[in-house]
Recover the amino acids of this structure.
């Protein structure tokens, strides 16, 4: 037997690796996810190690199904982890909201990765904390890799104690941060088929009028969790100071930037880190803010925390001035520089712009000094990417009145030079859904040609195609099938014949699915076969109903990798 | 007062920056220092410009050293720039000050609208002056090891062996052994050692 001490380790882990570590230590049995930046590596890691721990891991068809799958496991008594990016919460919200009403049986943690600054996301700069308020889901916000591990473990504890799913919300600088993490070597082994579904109509069926009772129970539970979190050390005050001029409240990654500023500027300030965004430790916050004349709330994106704190101040008759977004941006990430400026402004301090810089220049970099403009290097399709073959042909043959429908994935780059084949871009699967609307609305005035990848087709593109067929419109849908979900780091999808753990699985044939949906004009061809693509496209452009061309060829990176191995 | 040593690594998606930051952060911990880093994955990785931030504590003694809090540092606060591409090296200069060491791979991944190589080099010289080092890392790794991607390890080796980066070579070697899969370990160690000479 190893003693407990030798079980402790300290290693550099990426935030997402630390999340996996926390889940392993908590004894997770069942892991589901849909890949998306910045949370994709969580699944990738489980894909490699799940078997060693007897854990079940799946890449689900989309985030809604991923959560549903975990609900099934939870009701059967297993501990589950679900991971997704911010937009995934939109997709699974239909399941998430009632799940808070029913509660969980086996503990469940849902990891959501937000992306302030949209480094790895199109679409919107979504702040998933809005869902915490709407769904009443307990939400923990780690700032560093250590907290990623700790909060996932704690999330499972809270979930187990209160029979409620817990959200761990990261942002890109947390998920993709590397830092030393202390952890224990897990020693459990799961046996997932040991799960047993014990029927509980009262708890698992959300029919009225019971559903309103459930809501009452949820609100009561929330207050119990709030009381628990009031005492938790995850909401803590660092650098307690007697200075009553200014107090700071921070959440998430902003804590690290703020502490860097406080240390570097040798400021004598109290900093309260709030890690449980929902439910908030109201008493702890009230006790903190009443000590100061002003409190600066430092959080990224929308001022959800700031608003709550203003309400808490109001409820408690506290006159402290609460400031935040008047001096901090609501768009993009926060960083050391922005926070330094904000604190200096409130304290009336003059900071030397870039103490180390060459000269005193306003925005203070050498480059601006030299008035150097550096051309932007935009992302592009990889060398050898099969899309390079098909896209020029499709563009050349498209009629002048074409409306290009864009979608999510590597094919997003059709919107950039040299392709410039995108007239709208929304979310997973929407190229065809919107294309249908364009076709219906414009008749002969425009021709909708939509471009989508194989992963997106399975995720939600199929549903839009059914709608187009059923409601009789005529977009031309191009499916660029590169045999994998590539953009997010090469994850398996239902078209590959492999599951999340790289075991063989039934291979969904896109052409057969499309035919079964009632599409008459469908053709699968090699992306490199210009002649055939040209002939088929010319023919399909004359059709009055929906047409689908599946351009199939393996992703160039995947191809090279397979040949190497 | 500044207590961290800040390293900015820039390049183009696909050049192996993620592996480099994995090795570097593990090496810093093996050296007994605190470290935090930030990297990007996904969309920005597909041939786009990638910047990786690494901050390490200056002292190993925890009594004397403050911990590294933020994984990002300010413009003007980089102590060392490792540029895997000339233009991306130049882009990193936004974070440089007059003391910053610039170690730049003499290698350019062109794209539509790129600046001429000579102009990039000239600008780098104006900024870097005596602190600028053009290193033919990709060329050397291609010639000696048939793999340009190992330029990351060569540049790291150059910085370590020339004392631009206060990490013991043994710490890097142990980090490579930990971070790199067995199949590629030997060539990464070789590329690192190549810079010793």
């Amino acid at each position: 037997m190893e003693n407990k001490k030798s079980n402790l380790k300290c290693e550099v882990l990426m935030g997402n690796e630390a999340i996996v570590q926390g889940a392993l230590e908590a004894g997770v049995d069942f892991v589901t996810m849909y890949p998306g930046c910045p949370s994709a590596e969580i699944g990738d890691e489980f894909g490699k190690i799940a078997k060693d721990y007897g854990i079940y891991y799946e890449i689900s068809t989309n985030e809604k199904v991923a959560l549903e799958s975990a609900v099934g496991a939870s009701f059967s008594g297993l501990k589950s982890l679900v991971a997704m990016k911010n937009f995934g919460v939109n997709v699974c919200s239909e399941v998430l909201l009632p799940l808070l009403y029913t509660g969980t049986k086996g503990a469940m943690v849902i990891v959501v990765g937000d992306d302030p600054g949209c480094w790895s996301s199109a679409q919107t700069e979504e702040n998933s904390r809005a869902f915490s308020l709407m769904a009443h889901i307990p939400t923990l916000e780690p700032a560093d890799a250590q907290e990623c591990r700790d909060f996932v473990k704690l999330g499972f504890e809270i979930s187990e104690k209160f029979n409620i799913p817990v959200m761990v919300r990261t942002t890109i600088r947390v998920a993709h941060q590397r830092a030393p993490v202390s952890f224990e070597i897990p020693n459990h082994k799961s046996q997932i088929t040991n799960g047993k579904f014990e029927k509980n109509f009262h708890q698992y069926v959300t029919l009225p009028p019971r559903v309103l009772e459930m809501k009452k129970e949820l609100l009561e539970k929330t207050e119990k969790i709030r009381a628990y979190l009031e005492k938790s050390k995850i909401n803590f005050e660092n650098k307690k100071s007697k200075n009553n001029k200014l107090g700071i409240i921070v959440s998430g990654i902003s804590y690290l930037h703020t502490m860097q500023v406080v240390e570097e500027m040798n400021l004598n300030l109290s900093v309260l880190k709030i890690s449980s965004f929902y439910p908030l430790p109201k008493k702890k916050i009230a006790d903190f803010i009443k000590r100061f004349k002003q409190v600066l709330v430092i959080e990224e994106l929308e001022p959800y925390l700031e608003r709550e704190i203003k309400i808490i101040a109001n409820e408690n008759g506290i006159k402290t001035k609460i400031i935040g977004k008047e001096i901090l941006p609501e768009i993009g990430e926060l960083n050391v520089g922005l926070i330094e400026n904000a604190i200096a402004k409130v304290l009336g301090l003059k900071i030397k712009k870039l103490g180390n810089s060459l000269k005193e220049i306003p925005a203070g970099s050498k480059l601006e000094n030299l008035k150097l403009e550096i051309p932007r290097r935009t992302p592009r399709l990889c060398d050898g990417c099969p899309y390079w073959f098909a896209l020029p042909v499709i563009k050349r043959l498209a009629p002048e009145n074409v409306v290009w429908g864009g979608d999510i994935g590597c094919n997003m780059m059709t919107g950039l030079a040299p392709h410039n084949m995108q007239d709208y871009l929304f979310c997973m699967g929407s190229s065809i859904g919107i294309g249908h609307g364009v076709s219906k609305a414009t008749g002969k005035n425009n021709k909708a040609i939509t471009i989508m990848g194989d992963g997106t087709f399975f995720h939600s593109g199929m549903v839009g195609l059914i709608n187009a067929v059923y409601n009789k419109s005529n977009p031309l849908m191009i499916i660029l099938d590169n045999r994998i979900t590539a953009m997010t780091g090469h994850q398996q999808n239902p078209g590959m014949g492999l599951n999340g753990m790289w075991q063989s699985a039934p291979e969904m044939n896109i052409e057969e699915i499309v035919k079964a949906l009632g599409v008459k004009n469908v053709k699968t061809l090699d992306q490199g076969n210009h002649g055939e693509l040209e002939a088929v496209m010319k023919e399909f452009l004359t059709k009055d109903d929906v047409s689908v061309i599946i351009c199939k060829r393996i992703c160039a990176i995947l191809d090279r990798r397979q040949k190497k191995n | 007062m500044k207590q961290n040593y800040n390293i900015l690594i820039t390049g183009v998606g696909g050049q192996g920056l993620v592996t480099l930051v994995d090795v570097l952060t593990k090496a810093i911990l093996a050296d007994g220092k605190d470290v935090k880093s930030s990297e990007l994955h996904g969309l920005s990785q597909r041939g786009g410009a990638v910047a990786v931030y690494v901050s390490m504590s200056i002292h190993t003694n925890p009594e004397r050293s403050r911990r590294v809090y933020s994984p990002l540092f300010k413009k003007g606060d980089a102590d060392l720039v490792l540029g895997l591409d000339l233009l991306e090296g130049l882009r990193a200069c936004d974070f440089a000050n007059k003391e910053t060491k610039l170690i730049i791979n003499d290698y350019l991944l062109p794209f539509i609208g790129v600046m001429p190589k000579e102009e990039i080099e000239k600008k780098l010289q104006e900024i870097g002056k005596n602190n600028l080092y053009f290193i033919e890392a990709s060329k050397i790794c291609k010639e000696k090891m048939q793999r340009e991607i190992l330029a990351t390890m060569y540049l790291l080796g150059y910085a370590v062996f020339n004392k631009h980066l206060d990490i013991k070579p043994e710490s890097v070697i142990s980090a490579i052994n930990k971070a790199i899969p067995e199949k590629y370990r030997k060539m990464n160690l070789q590329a690192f050692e190549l810079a010793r000479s």
User: Anything to note?
Assistant: The two ends of chain B are 36 Å apart (CA to CA). Strands of chain B lie at 4-12, 35-38, 49-57, 80-83, 101-105, 132-135.
